[in-house]
Amino acid sequence: MSDSKPGTLIDGREIAQAIRDEVKAQIEEWTEAHRPPFLSAVLVGDNPASKAYVRGKEQDAAEVGIETNTHHYDSDLSEEALLDTVRGLNGDPSVDGILVQLPLPDHIDDRAVIDTIDPKKDVDGFHPANLGRLMRGNPSFVPATPYGIVTMLDRCGIDPKGMDTVIVGRSNIVGKPLANLLMQRDRNATVTVCHSRTKDLAAHTRRADLLVAAVGQAEMIGADMVKNGAVVIDVGINRVDDASNERGYRLVGDIDFEEVRPKSSWITPVPGGVGLMTRAMLLKNTMTAARLHATA
Description:
With about 300 residues, the chain is of the alpha/beta class. The protein is about 40% helix and about 15% strand.
């Protein structure tokens, strides 16, 4: 592992900017012979966080030279109408990547929508075909948040080989694909996945050399749950009331940052950590989709 002082920040802003610069250079070279990559986003409803995420992705795409459009529908859109939109994008030769922003309204089955996306345009990496390829070790698209986490580790010189790794959270978006990535032969971590039914969660987290929190519960992991010298990756983004902030709230992670930082060797902040990497890796996946589309 790269040497670090206790509580060294893993700077998501700096690493994500480096990724964007690399993708921009790739696209500049690509567009000498091809049209720019095109990403089509689908947003259903007016969830403020979802709208902010899509705006951020549009801004990132514009920075690197990816063209975008967003199909924005009211929250009462029917599931079949959404599936028709996805099918239309599948068949549109000008579209390289499709992103359906989650979560969707309760009356729409997320899995039905994800399953309908063309796997070659599935830049989120959520389609069963892409998750299967990931588990087999030859992915086309890696889900952006796990992709961002392993890229952070790589760029900080943190080698997970042999690390006792604990992931708190078993979602299909973060926990499960990240466990697969870290277990594969190029990383060789020993992985435990914990969740809401895990008995004595703290007993697991306290032995982790690498601890990843991805549950969406504000500051649930304190210093007493973390091993001295652990690498701590905080995926959570939670709003907590804060009257001193002009917005009336502040963003915190699943880790109690101020408590845990002195015990950690490396730690990601919130904001300024994993979230920015998620957006950056989506750009990489979109460039991959354009290459796949051009050779189809």
